[in-house]
Amino acid sequence: MTVPLTVSMNEVIELGDIAISLTRKQVKNVHLTVHPPDGRVTLVAPLATRTEVARAYAISRVGWICQQQRSFAGQEREQARQFVTRETHHLWGRRYLMTVTEADVKPHVKLDHRRIHLVVRPGADQAKKAEVIHDWHKALLHAELPGLIAQWERKLGVKVNGYYLQRMKTQWGSCNHRVGNIRLNTELVKKPKDLLAYVVVHEMLHLLVPTHSDVFVELLDRHYPGWREARWGLNELALSAY
């Protein structure tokens, strides 16, 4: 069941160089979030909250906001991939060395316990190599997701009408609760599988509660009690360059 919520127009609270997007919703408590990877700040407050009260709360948390933004700014990021032999790549939380072979066969990727073997046609450029790897990443995710989604459909009592894979810069996933679809970042293939499960559960719970309200947090606590550690682990791992 979707919980109806009344939402007010967004405002922006400016504290020096910090811009905070303020949204009032039908929630009980204030939720202040610093979003990776760029340190964007949002504040969700109860509907009756006055702007000056929200501002005072934000001021009291400036130190924490700056700490989070510094953490994201200093976070390890992958360098732009060149797709050359002996380059390091991540898969399911592990590091692999890549080998690149040119052959007059259909481009493909093979994996063994130590290396990712990329096979491309002679003269293939960096963009083509990236395309082959991205298609392989999507295939790996497609192999994992149907079973994972089915498992959590039974646990949560929801139905996912469809899922989509897309390379995203600022989100690990999103949910369109109106049509029952979820969208997942293909970069998740580089993270440990338990973190993929966390993102799937998070987005599927939005089919029940569209916003990050107190009800949503209560559902996360009930069904995925380790979600805070999973979120921390997800955001602490290296972010990819785009």
Q: Could you explain the architecture of this structure?
A:
Helix content is 36%, strand content 26%. It has 242 residues and is α/β, with parallel strands linked by helices. The strands form 3 sheets. It has a 4-stranded mixed beta sheet with strand order 1-2-4-3, covered by helices on one side. The chain has a 4-stranded mixed beta sheet with strand order 5-6-8-7, with helices on one face. Strands 9-11-10 form a 3-stranded mixed beta sheet, with helices on one face. Helix 3 (126-156) packs across helix 4 (193-205). The protein is globular and about 65 Å long.
What order do the helices and strands come in, and which of them pair?
Elements lengths: L10 E5 L2 E8 L5 E5 L4 E7 L4 H10 L1 H12 L14 E4 L2 E9 L5 E4 L3 E6 L5 H31 L5 E5 L6 E4 L4 E5 L7 H13 L8 H10 L3 H10 L6
Parallel strand pairs: 2-4, 6-8, 9-11
Antiparallel strand pairs: 1-2, 3-4, 5-6, 7-8, 10-11
Helix pairs in contact: 3-4
